Structure formats: structure tokens, C-alpha cells
Amino acid sequence: MVLKRSFASYLRLVAVFARFSLTREMAFRGNFVMKVLLELVWLGILLVFYRTLFRGVDSIAGWDSASFLFFLGCYYTLEGVVETLFLENFVEFSDLVRTGNLDLHLLKPIDEQFLLSIRLIDWSTVPKLFIGSGMMGVAVFQMGHPVSGWTLALFLGLFVAGVSMAYSFLLILSSTAIWMVRNQSLMELWWLFSTLMRYPRDIYDVAWAWPVRLVFTFVLPALLVVSVPAEVVGKAVLDPWWICWMLVSAIISLSGSRRIFMGSIASYRSASS
Amino acid sequence: MSAKIGSPAMDSSLSIGLVKSLTKYFNIFKVSLVERLAYRADFLLGTFLRLLPLVTTLLLWKAVYANKDEISGYTYRQVVAYLLLVHVSRMFSSMPGLASGIARDVRDGNLKRYLVQPLDLISYLLAYRMAHKVAYIITSIPLYSVIFFLFRDFFDAPADPWWFCLYATALLMSFILGFAFEASLGMLGFWFLEISSFLYLVNTVNFFVSGHFLPLDLLDPWVAGILKVLPMQFMAYFPAALIMGKAGDWNDVVRGLGIEAAWCLGFFAMARGAYALGLRRYGGYGG
After folding, report:
1. What is the pTM of this model?
2. How far is C-alpha B124 from the geometric centre of its chain's CA atoms?
3. A45 Cβ under 8 Å from any chain B Cβ
């Protein structure tokens, strides 16, 4: 049974989940430090790669050094949000299905999607949010032109749309765990999805890559997730068509993924009985 | 009855022992190969998924070279050739799950099955991994043949076919080095309870410093200089650079292979030494 609860009580629950997750992380401090260190190593690799790319050229697919840094910062922050709030939950979801422990969560008087999406919060990836935002700040400073309040608001709106699309993709992938029971390649598929987000979509402007660009713009719009928000600030491009398509895609992704998730829950047969 | 060393009886019993031992490890190889080939569809899907990041990387480099013919001595064709060849290097040198498997066996106590049976852990794992590699390479050949055929214009064949022998030697040694390196890391399990996060960190660093990500020559010269001293470069960069003619002349390459062989021996000795030391600390209880 799902009880209707107020928005405030859901927020309070998020705070409780966050506190519980932090307590759990602090029980294994060494592991926590290692995870943070790993994120910093990834950042180091990303920055060395960026520096190497711009050692020989002034711009890549219309992105100069500063705007490309903004893109990378945006990507790093978005990845941080998804990893902090959702990724661990979805990775554990297939385990819950396989072991039958999903029953316990379905019995709780709360929306199933909410509970299963945000139950575990990964504190080790929180530094990514600050570092990514810092990279975007440095890039804006390097670009040398101020960002207006409207542009910032639009960027934030599109960033939230990007997070929603990434979340929906993960939700759909996890839902398939109910039908396939074992879904070990979730992390690999997420890696694939984030690979498509990692570079500006302008690099797909090559004759042989057009099918890839079409599929990942209109069918599974992974190419828009970071590119469209980053273009608004990094390249000062305000294309109403793309902005509208991004927002529409986010809404379709969210509602579509919820329908798929609910459908999969409806066909769940407990493994314990 | 006893046989003196050097006597015909001793020689024949030694050779029988050797044949038996080789047969044992050959059988492990055979069983592991059959086990691996049972999951060939999974293999193909995994390989296909791993190719998509390659497509995005190629597109990125195409954009980088849009207004430039050469960067740090590499043309666009050469960077693409390198990134494809580095997949071949990693096909030989990557050992997913080897170190964590050893550490898990130590922690869970499963290590004792190697102690109570006439089976040497490192030799067993080597035979097992050889089988996995053979299976992996066989199932990957069709896909990679298509890719290399599509990109055939990006490769320049070396003038002297003997370079292929050097390349094959470098690849085989990269398998041995990858195995010995991972096995040495796995032995840390004797001293630390949980090493999975550390292994993940090492693998991430290795991904970059081995040259899997990009040709080491494109980095700042001082960074490239440091990375070319480390053994990790032999697991990805060196074989690819060798066949592209980027690792120097014949003498440089032979010297490089000598250094690679020394690293192989060094890591094997380290794995063996750590295993012997670790067994002194190890206690396996229960049935």
C-alpha cells in the first residue's frame, strides 16, 4: 500500500537516509578515504587528458580551452550527482530482486520508486560536486565574460533535466533486473551511457557518425545530457529548439521510466516463497 | 629402492614426473578453455560494448586533428592505429579478477585446497589464465578482424617482417608481466584483510600510466619520461609503439624487450617470495 505523504516528509526521509549512509560510511573510514582518493585520481587523469588535448590545438569542435573545461566541469558534477544519489541504489536493486529482499521494501508505506532510488547515499562522491563546480567557476573566469542571472537559471534548469535523463536511464536498466533476474552488466551499461556524455556532441559531426548522433539524440538522448547545459554557458549558445527538446526529453524519460518501473514491480514474483 | 642422481633410473623417473606435471597443468588449461567458451555470447556482447567508447574516442581525436596534421610526432592516422593496437596489448596483459581472487582465497580460507593437493597456486593460476586468454582471443578475432580491416589504411606495415616476431614476443611477455604483476598484488591479501579498493585504485592508475588512454609520447615530455621507466608501459604502450616503429630502432627495441623480460622475472620472483612469506602467516582452519 502506498500512502500519500507530503513533500516535506519525503525531504525529511532523504535527510534520514543521508545521515544513516554517513554513519555506515564512517564505520569503514579507511575504505571511505580510498574511495575519495580514487575519485581524485580520476579527476587527475581527466585533467591531464584535457591538458594534453590542448597542448597541440586551440579548439576542439568549436570548443576552446576554457569552454571545454566548463564542459568537463559540468560532466564531472553531473556524474557526481548521479553517483552520490542514485548509482549505488540501482546497483543493489538487482541483488534485492535475486535474494527476495525486495519484498521488505515493497511493504513499506512509501512510494517504491522513491525508496529504491535514494535509499543509499554515497558520500565518497560528494567531493566531485564541489570540484566539478570549481572547474566550471575557473572556466567562467577564464572565459572572461560575465554570466547573467537568466543564463545561470537556464543552465541550472537544463542541468536538472540532464540529471533526470541520466536517472531515468538507470531506472529503466534496473527495472529489467526483475525480468532478467541477473543483471550484472548495469555498471557496464552505465559506463557506456556516460561515455556518450563525456565529450561535446559536436564531435559527432562526421559523415559516418550520423546514425550514432541521430539515435543518441532522438531515441536515447544521451548526447544532450551534458552538451546542451554546457553550451548555454560555455559557448553562450541559446538555441530554443534544443533547449525545448532537452526539457521534453527529460519529461518523457521521467514519466516513461516510471511506467516501466511500475510495470516491472507489478510483475515481480517474490523469490522467497 | 632408491635411484642415484644422474643414473638412468633417476632420469627416467624425473622425466615421468615432469610429463605428469605438464599433463596436469595441460588438463587444467583444457577444462578452463571449455568453461570459458560456454559463455561466448556473453563474451561477444561484452566486447561489443567495450567498442562503443572506442568510437567516441576516435571521434574526439578526429575533432582534435581537424586543423592540425601532426601533434608531438603523431598524425591522426597514427593515433587511431595506436588506440586500436593498444587494445591488442591489453587483450594479452589484462588480468581481471586475478589479484582480488587470490586475496579472496586467502581471506575465505579457500587457499588450503592448494596446500592439501599436489597443486602449486601460481602454476595453477597461470595455466587457468592462459586458457582464458586463448578463449578470449579466439572469440575476439572475428570482431577485431573486421575492425582492423575497416581501418587497414591507418596502419603502415613494418619494412622488415622480423618486427612481427619482436611484436609477438612483446605481447607474450606482456601477458606474463600482467599475470606476475597482478599475482604480486594479490599476495597483499596475506597482510591486509580487504584490498579491493586498493586494487581498483591501482587498476585506474594503471589504465593511464600504461598508455591505454593515449600514446605516452603526447604527454608533457617529463611525464612521458617518467612513465616510460615504469613497468606498466610494457602492458599497453610498448608493444603498440614497437610495431608502429615509435619505440626506436632494432637495437632500442631489443633492449626494451630485455628490460621487459627483467621486469617479468622481477615480478614473478616477487609473487613467489610474497607467497612463501604469506604462507608462514596463513592459518587455514575447518573442513
Report:
1. 0.83
2. 16
3. yes
For residue A72, give the nearest of A145, A7, A137 by alpha carbon.
A137
- Name residues whose C-beta falls within 8 Å of residue B261's C-beta, 6 or more positions apart in sequence: B173
Query: How would DSSP label each residue in A180-239?
Result: HS--TTHHHHHHHHHHHHSS-GGGG-SGGGHHHHHIIIIIS-TTHHHHHHHHHHHS----
Give dist(CA A94, CA A101) in Å, integer.
Answer: 10
ipTM: 0.86
Most B CBs within 10 Å, among A203, A206, A226, A227, to test the B interface? A203
The CA distance from B104 to B109, in Å, is: 8
Is residue A37 within 8 angstroms of chain B, CB to CB? Answer: yes
Mutate to test the interface with A, among B50, B57, B64 (most CBs of A within 10 A): B64
Q: What is the pLDDT along chain B (287 residues), one digit of tens a residue?
A: 344 444 555 566 667 777 887 888 888 888 877 776 666 655 665 666 667 788 888 899 999 998 888 998 999 999 999 999 999 999 999 998 899 999 999 988 888 888 888 888 999 999 999 998 998 888 888 888 988 999 999 998 887 888 999 999 999 999 999 999 999 999 999 998 888 888 988 998 999 999 998 999 999 999 999 999 999 999 999 999 999 999 888 899 999 999 999 999 999 999 999 999 999 888 766 54
Kindly report each contact of residues A130-136 with a partner whose C-beta sits within 8 Å and lies 24 or more positions away, as own/partner: A131/A43, A131/A76, A131/A80, A132/A73, A132/A74, A132/A75, A132/A76, A132/A77, A132/A78, A132/A79, A132/A80, A133/A73, A133/A77, A134/A73, A135/A69, A135/A70, A135/A72, A135/A73, A135/A76, A136/A70, A136/A73, A136/A74, A136/A77, A136/A233
Cell of B109: 580460507
Torsion of CA A45, A48, A51, A57, to 10 degrees: -80
Grid coordinates belonging to B3: 635411484
**Longest alpha-carbon distance in chain B:** 81
B56 chain-A contacts, CB cut-off 8 A: 195-196, 198-199, 203
B39 touches A at CB < 8 Å = no
Question: What cell does B194 get?
Answer: 580487504
* 3-state class percentages of chain B: helix first, strand second, coil last, to nearest 5: 75, 0, 20
CA atoms of B186 and B99, how far apart (whole Å): 4
Domain spans of chain B, in order of start: 26-281
- For chain A, the structural domain boundaries read 7-266
